[in-house]
Write a structure and sequence with these properties.
Layout lengths: L2 E6 L5 H14 L3 E4 L9 H11 L4 E4 L9 H15 L3 E5 L4 H4 L8 H15 L4 E3 L2 E3 L12 E4 L3 H10 L2 E5 L6 H16 L8 E10 L3 H17 L8 H13 L18 H7 E4 L1 H14 L3 E6 L7 H11 L9
Parallel strand pairs: 1-2, 1-11, 2-3, 3-4, 4-7, 7-8, 8-9, 9-10, 9-11
Antiparallel strand pairs: 5-6
Helix pairs in contact: 1-2, 1-12, 2-3, 3-5, 5-6, 6-7, 8-9, 8-10
């Protein structure tokens, strides 16, 4: 069965995030993911703990944390604790770092550093001893039977291949169409899995995508423009359409990491409609249903929506409208 998840960026206050997560569970979303960017969003692990205590079914994930601002022992300890609170519903999503690093003036982590971090966290969660400056380190309360799956946030071909090589899944963004670019990305992941002899293991392929739905297509498209402004900036590792390339150049001149994925009228005039639909799931219910079906058919396991408020509404309203108007076409029942 096609699966829809919910990714909530914490530019809203903490109680609102918790209520949105509870709403997502009631409406039938399969997962709730929270972002990690310490200077622009509320604290990831605190909110995951709060959400774990008020939900019962949804999987909970970091979407995504990083090896730069989180020491591997901190991440391992947090995830082991969250596994206890959630009764085994956690997913560790981790990537090289984007705004979490850029807002500190740091470059994202290298692939080698990310791979080492993942290996260390996985070993600690499994209760293994890990070499350290003082000899070795071990997580005292590790539960080897409850090691959460680890998914890599990836964008470029080398990072996608790494996800296939070392992770239990991949989450990528900036892909709104089931086209040749999507097939190339999925092929890169599969090549990594094949090279590492991991084709027989369970693997989750998630697509994180900005979403808005409304009977008036123009209103839905307008809602996701700020997110698309970010998408065209971080997408240069893949060929862009001429219109998207022009939009990327315009966005680069004014984009600020501190406003990442937050609604802002500053970006309203930068992204034409045709480009929005390359990088988002936005439009009428029929538009979104058709687009989602094509993405699932292409090989996506979970479409993880990043909901944006439409026409002065709330993010919660988009979460609910999407469930009733789009997810219901895929046998979902609130």
């Amino acid at each position: 069965m096609p699966v829809f998840g919910l990714e909530l960026h914490e530019y809203l206050d903490a109680p609102t995030i918790v209520e949105e997560a509870r709403l997502g569970e009631r409406l039938g979303y399969a997962s709730v993911w929270l972002g990690d960017s310490q200077l622009i969003w509320r604290e990831l692990h605190t909110l995951l703990g709060a959400v774990a205590t008020v939900t019962e079914r949804v999987r909970l994930g970091s979407g995504v944390t990083n090896p730069l601002t989180r020491h591997p022992t901190v991440t391992a300890s947090a995830l082991a604790t969250l596994q206890e609170l959630s009764r085994g519903r956690m997913i560790l999503g981790i990537g090289a770092g984007f705004t979490s690093a850029r807002t500190l003036g740091l470059a994202p982590a290298t692939r080698a550093a990310l791979a080492e971090h993942v290996a260390t966290v996985r070993a600690l969660l499994a209760g293994e001893a890990v070499p350290a400056a003082a000899g070795e380190m071990r997580l005292a309360f590790a539960n080897p039977a409850a090691v959460p799956p680890i998914v890599l946030g990836a964008g470029g071909p080398k990072m996608l291949r790494l996800a296939g090589e070392i992770a239990d899944g991949v989450v990528f963004a900036g892909q709104g169409r089931a086209d040749a670019a999507l097939r190339t990305k999925l092929d890169a992941v599969r090549a990594g899995r094949e090279a590492a002899g991991r084709l027989g293991r369970p693997f989750l392929t998630c697509l994180g995508i900005a979403a808005a739905v409304h009977a008036d297509r123009a209103r839905a498209i307008a809602a996701v423009r700020p997110h698309v402004a970010a998408s065209v900036l971080v997408h240069p590792r893949w060929p862009l359409s001429p219109a998207a390339q022009q939009a990327s150049e315009r966005a680069r001149q004014v984009y600020r990491y501190a406003e990442h994925m937050s609604p802002s009228d500053r970006f309203a005039g930068l992204i034409p409609d045709e480009v929005v639909q390359e990088f988002a799931l936005a439009g009428t219910p029929d538009d979104c249903i058709a687009q989602a079906r094509a993405l699932f058919a292409a090989g996506i396991d979970e479409i993880t929506i990043r909901p944006f408020p439409v026409d002065g509404g709330t993010r919660a309203a988009t979460i609910e409208t999407f469930a009733h108007a789009v997810m219901s076409a895929f046998a979902y029942r609130p």
